[in-house]
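Filed under: proteins

Residues; backbone shape codes:
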Amino acid sequence: MPVSFLMPTKVVYGKDVVLKNRELLRNLGENFLVITGKSSRKNGGLEDVMDALEGRHVHIFDQTPENPPLELVPQICSMFSNSEIDVIIGLGGGSPMDTAKAVAVLLMNPQLDAQELYDPTKYDTAKKLICIPTTAGTGSEVTQFSVLTVDGKKKGFSNQCTFPTLSLVDYKYTITMGRELTVSTGLDALCHAIEGYISLNATPFSDVLALESIKNIRDFLPKVLEDPENEYYRERLMFASTLAGMVIAQTSTTVAHALGYNLTTNKGVKHGLATAVFLPFELRHAQTSKANEVNALFDGSLYRFYDTIGLRLSVDISDEEISKWAQNTSTASHLKSTPGSYNFDKLVEALREVRDVFCEA
């Protein structure tokens, strides 16, 4: 059976790659818009970008919140005209990079309403986009996906034109991350790799990347929690995160992501944690050789690995919420790529297991 692998983003990886690639950056345009959050001033990312773009016109939007709402995108676009900006830079975690993708589309296609981002037939062009991750988890720097909050729910869109033009990946920006963010983003990458590996859309190409990512996260996430300033450990997690992003660019994500969105939007649980807690159930229910292979990599169960990093959720979940969330998830597109059958009752079972095993409100 023929398989394909599309990843048109140019990736430059290594320490100080932003500063070492000034000409590569500057040759993309004269006018840049940097979309970021407050942390990029602390981790050195914004300073490096401004240094590399010296002499160019640079606008900065640094108010990107976690789980950004769709309404933010036209607000940012209203500050600029189509001709004012040549290149969009998404600098930060998934929230700034995903926002940057949406802004890149709307600035190139000002006739679009923000809701039309979710109709890929409405557009096929976007502004040049550079993504520079400062967390090791989202993988958004190498995917076509953007996930925003729409009417209180996380909702993703994708289009070939929203693949970044260029991705500059430097682990050094992650060294200042605290324990909570390190765990959450590391588990987000693990979810991407595992979900991509067992996905019905997986290919031999994506499988190689997924397994390498899984092994690196398994080996180095616990180590970096013990020694957070160890550059080698940080580099391995950033490498694993980017590989996992390449995986889901081919496979998309599965039911664990769809279930996790409920915990994030309704309970404020960080995305990586909210998704990871559903992986043990998904692996068990998949009943495939690949799911068994993943469990074997973790000595038979992800639960043991989660115990080593202290994964718990400080929330309570009611029976009413479980019923509502199961109904919401029953129509998610993620189910199409998920091995096993997930009806309403099975989704309720998954949610109850997470409540029983992980919640300590």
User: Anything to note?
Assistant: The domain at 179-358 is CATH 1.20.1090.10 (Dehydroquinate synthase-like, alpha domain).
